[in-house]
Specification:
By secondary structure, this protein is α+β, with helices and mostly antiparallel strands. The protein has two helices and 19 strands. Helix content is about 25%, strand content about 35%. The longest helix has about 35 residues.
């Protein structure tokens, strides 16, 4: 009976983590460029001894990593000249104090020196490094290929990069990803840049709310199973320990 309780507890621990991930998805339903995540489950067989000392295997439930859905969210019109969305596969490169990072969040602005930066002040990288603009030179236009021009004169180029495998990317906070592999990012040939637009989160709120309900119900079912198993175990111990009159 103890094995059933332990298996149930392993399932509850997994459900708690899945609840955190699902709640985080819902919290980021309005975050620009956010990508939906889900928890992967796996079986963890453990050899032990059953009744009479016979070897047996108990299969626990464990996490097998977090899957991230990189499918594109809806593109929404903002009209802001420094808002840029990636239509297709790819990421913007930004230079942070911790090194290069990657994002789909195209809410850019200019710092006091005219450098193109993110909302957190990290420099957006173009094909030649930092992009520096002068508002006095006229309206900023960004083509689908990333060429930035003012009054018809090219002043920089914004580019999207991609990876041979998206498994190379890990979350790094602030809607950024870091490259944890030895893969080198390359310019994306499947991306078009859309000026005056932003990519919405790809989270489906109704689906995530439904999943929250399912997780809570599953947790309650496991809790009831553990309670019933513990009660049966206690009753069995009481009966076995009772003194039988002769």
């Amino acid at each position: 009976m103890d094995n059933a309780v332990y298996v149930g507890l392993s399932r509850q621990m997994l459900l708690e983590r899945e609840l955190d991930i699902t709640a985080n998805n819902l919290a980021n339903v309005d975050t620009v460029g956010y990508k939906f995540e889900s928890l992967l489950n796996a079986a963890d067989p453990v050899s032990t001894h059953g009744a009479g000392g016979q070897p047996t295997t108990v299969t626990f439930v464990t996490a097998d990593g977090v899957a991230r859905d990189y499918s594109q969210g809806a593109l929404t019109q903002t009209g802001a000249p420094l808002d840029v969305a990636i239509d297709g596969a790819g990421f913007f490169t930004v230079n942070t104090p911790s090194g290069p990072r990657y994002t789909r969040d195209g809410r850019f602005t200019l710092d006091p020196t005219g450098k193109l930066v993110t909302q957190d002040g990290d420099a957006v990288q173009g094909s030649g490094g930092d992009i520096v603009l002068d508002p006095k030179k006229g309206p900023i236009a960004i083509s689908q290929s990333g060429i930035i021009s003012q009054n018809g004169v090219e002043v920089g180029k914004l580019q999207a990069v991609t990876f041979a495998s998206l498994a190379a990317l890990s979350k790094d906070g602030h809607n950024l990803y870091r490259n944890d592999s030895n893969l080198t990012p390359t310019p994306s040939t499947a991306a078009s840049l859309r000026q005056g637009m932003l990519e919405a989160s790809n989270v489906q709120p109704v689906t995530q709310i439904t999943r929250l309900i399912e997780i809570n119900r599953a947790y309650e079912m496991v809790a009831n199973m553990i309670s019933s198993t513990s009660t049966l175990s206690a009753n069995a111990i009481q009966r076995l320990g009772a003194v039988t009159p002769t």
